[in-house]
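Notebook entry, structure prediction.
Reason for the run: the old model in the group folder had no record of what sequence produced it. Starting over properly, with the input documented here first.
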Amino acid sequence: MANGNAEGLVGYSRRNFMVPIPRFASWDAFNAYLEGQCRKRQADVLRGQSETIGERLARDLAAMADLPAAPFDACDQATGRVSSQALVRYRTNDYSVPVAYGHRDVWIRGYVDAVMIGCGGQVIARHPRCYGREDMVFDPVHYLPLIERKINALDQAAPLAEWDLPPAFATLRRLMEARMTKAGRREYVQVLRLLETFDIDDLHAAVKKALHLGAVGFDAVKHLVLCQVEKRPPKLDLDVYPYLPRAHVASTKVASYMSLLSGDAA
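New structure, fully documented this time:
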């Protein structure tokens, strides 16, 4: 009987709250909408009743047992093992974890909108839930320690192929490589590894500030992102710290092209 009532309420909710099919930016927004509709309906009086739905609910709640001390974690729980590619299989799809956890046993929690992976008592990865089949869901940050050691793989690594970073990061990389070539590429990856600790918005603000100051270096970016998070002014003196070089782009001069042409003619 209880199961039939539950199915009937689900059908009512679908017909009245989800036709036409609603669209929301997130599951949280959708759940908030459904909660609002249910609370609004508490003012209704059903046929054959003298009390509102809300009044009847309050009477039922008074007779019910207390809620558990901890909320119910509505998820599917499973276990898995990290592959040599730092991937964990869950429900036909592979999800990345930090490369340091390769070949380790992990636990998995599958939620409606997310997949959480942990090792021991620590959460090591969170991903949006994928409902496809045989897909791979990457977090590029998980692979940066490996790429830092094998820097020539920076442009070929599949986990980084579709990483849509703000344009300021590409500018920073270009200036670092122009100054230090391969070492500059490695230092750029060190900047990206700051995402292991800081949010992308804070690091993006620090990178833009570094470019504005001409302080093209990992130490400068790290200092600036710390200042961004701690809400304090930066203290960068490029005269005192010459290892934080300024980036100078000279203006184009016609005479330079003329000298090249004269040299070709000779």
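Summary: Residues 129 and 201 are 23 Å apart (CA to CA).
The old model has been moved to the deprecated folder.
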